[in-house]
Amino acid sequence: VQLVESGGGLVQPGGSLTLSCSASGFIFSSAFMSWVRQAPGKVIQYLGGIHQDGATTYPESVRGRFTISRDNAKNTIYLQSNSLKFEDTAMYYCGKGELIGQGTQVTVS
User: Fold this and answer.
1) Are residues 61 and 5 in contact, defined by beta-carbon separation less than 8 angstroms?
2) How many Å apart are CA 80 and CA 16, to the nearest integer?
């Protein structure tokens, strides 16, 4: 199983960013996938998940700002993040169960 995140970078407050996660090594179309993040010195925060049929779930803390989608033909999930804030600075990871990728850094400054 391999998960590879990309799309991170430096963005100004109020800006938007779309992260991607390319998956391989398992039947992607049957998998519930998720996004989490970890800021320096803080615990991992769950950002939401997407079921096989595209149904999504989000915690209240990010609902309305973050949108998760998937393309089963490309074995890829996405995280669209809007109205970014300084406190959104973190390493972002996609996940399958307890497995996460290497992450992609998002810095809001």
Assistant:
1) no
2) 7
Any idea what the Cα angle at residue 14 is, between residues 58 and 43, rounded to 5°? 45
CA-CA distance, 64 to 82, in Å (whole number)? 9
Q: What is the pLDDT of residues 61-91, one digit of tens each?
A: 888 899 999 999 999 999 999 999 999 999 9
Identify the residue whose tokens are 């915690």. Answer: 59
pLDDT at residue 39 in the model = 96
**Paired strand residues for 50:** 33, 56
Q: pLDDT digits over 88-107, tens only?
A: 999 999 999 999 999 999 99
d(CA 41, CA 61): 19
Q: What is the dihedral of CA 5, 98, 80, 65, to 10 degrees?
A: -150
Residue type, 94: C
Separation between Cα atoms, residue 26 and residue 96, nearest integer Å: 10
User: What backbone torsions phi and psi does residue 100 show, to the nearest 5 degrees?
Assistant: -130, 165
